[in-house]
């Protein structure tokens, strides 16, 4: 039985073009980018080119891109670094109950340091209210951190509208765009964000790579100490081959964005249509028309997550109950708990399916057939 991968929101297969771009760098470009000799300059050229391409993908200036080890480090730098650098102006930070744990746990750390955090709630649709954000803003608010697309439900958040609200407020605005990058057209000026996070392995690039966009003039304290790489904002010798791979993944994502959106959306619709044809009882969590094409979060009444995932895996279907960063956890999803309330059945019977490069129309339909068979058996 051919295994079918429906967990692209957790990580994506590396695109063959990305591997091809990385190989010559791994084989030939071994110099330290901080060295002034020929070997170092060659490595520096690779990073400089990647920085230009990546900055262009979000309509930013190349000086505003800081390479990191991934989305988690970028979120930590944005949330903790900004709070520490600006605490004399205020100690209030606003985020949401549905953020990735990279933001939530960073916020909890700030609470231990004496910062006051407002966690904005969401309703059953899983969307942040712009009015509630506006009501939560105070004179001493120094940072607002709200994700662009939720990693569990795929719900697109009103980032542009929130950016408009914050335009006349001194608080910095950060958005975790890890699940949005490569699928949504991002313009940092139109969104009015001061910081933005993205990750390489979510867009068919190599793991352990990401960036934090930091608008020029944004005050952020470094969280690590060492060399003067990344304009003193993130020390450590850069991952040259990984950055080259990230660049190629970005080029492909920009070039094929419209095509991917359509293709992944077709896979999702084929999958859902087949479940309906098989008379499976299910409810989509969130507003389907307001999600990214690649993600759908489905509640299967009368079942539970552990049994579902175990049986899916045995049948060769890879899916998840939410963020891969909480893999192995049997805790109910914090995102679905925020949407429906703790104790609601949907917090323990919902599965995230996410589509991408590893899918075809045929395997999307085949996966739905396998899922339907298992759900009907377990729900009896």
TrEMBL record:
Transmembrane segments: none annotated. It comes from the Bacteria. It catalyses: (sulfur carrier)-H + L-cysteine = (sulfur carrier)-SH + L-alanine. Keywords: Iron, Iron-sulfur, Metal-binding, Pyridoxal phosphate, Transferase. Residues 4-365 form the Aminotransferase class V domain. It holds the Pfam family Aminotran_5. Its cofactor is pyridoxal 5'-phosphate. It comes from Sediminibacillus halophilus. This is Cysteine desulfurase. GO terms for molecular function: cysteine desulfurase activity; iron-sulfur cluster binding; metal ion binding. Belongs to the class-V pyridoxal-phosphate-dependent aminotransferase family. NifS/IscS subfamily.
